Amino acid sequence: MIMSRYLALHPTASNSAMASKQGTIVIAGLLIIAAISIWPRDAAAEFQQVAPDLFFNYDFGGSNSAVLITDEGVLVVDTRMHPDDAELLLAEIRKRTDAPIRYVVNSQFHGDHYMGNVVFQREGAIFIAHTDTQTVIKERFQYEVETRPFAARGQDPDAVVLVLPDILFDSRMVLQLGDRTIELIYLGAGQNEGDTLVYFPHARALHTGGAFHNRSWANTSYTPSFEGWIDVLLAMKDIDADTYLPPHGPLATIEDVDAFTQFIRELTASVSAAVEEGVPLDEMLGTLVFDQYSDWRGYERRERNLTAMYEFMSTGEAQFFVPGARAAPASRER
Fold this sequence. Notes:
alpha/beta, Metallo-beta-lactamase, Chain A, 12 strands, globular
């Protein structure tokens, strides 16, 4: 008998599916509880120095930002989820410089990365984003405001104001700030349409937009292609960087990028096999526990993420809105 691809990938699925499923759900629940108990969700963000003029605002329970400080001004990548969070980011910047905030790059359309924009608009920043990022921000802004956990965080949702980009780009854009060059690069959709990479050549550092998350279960509800996402991750490695600044998770190395690429490959292969062989969704969720990634940030979203992948591979449509007309990515030849 020829073993199915799904059973080959997950041999434990072959024995007593229902009993196995019940046991797996219990184990998964315990892992989720354990993971939640050790995660520092309320820990303050850490403003970490990457290079003499480049900083990484690391927020384990929220989203990360990058800050470049020059004598002629400051560039910020992503403004956090709420104006209150953005004020904290601005305070860290002001501890180090009084230079004006020249640019803000919104690297993706998820609200936890841009809904602090109004604070930096007050500071006079010029906002830049990919064309597709603006499209989805406009489509989903109200949804983002209504679904973010502002009440639990003691934050006022009415303080969130839609601030759209002043400048749009499609594939590549180069900025000069003081004696520093910054490159904005679009290699195609990774996690999202419009995923913008921000490259700091002098520091050999790359902010990865939504394409790469470090040891984190990235939301899989938005990508138009999992194979395309993997292609973006592989192409990203051709950029001459030693340090990677992810939107979620800690500072990273090329080995972390490889680990995340393998993670997306494993999820894609496993869910694809389940769909091709007609494995019911509930059975698949009980089987695909992915113990090896149970200590990654966001493991409690495993079922939601796998469900999104299952529905996408079954219907050919992402669970959430994506633009109909996609901008062409930059050439992957540097």
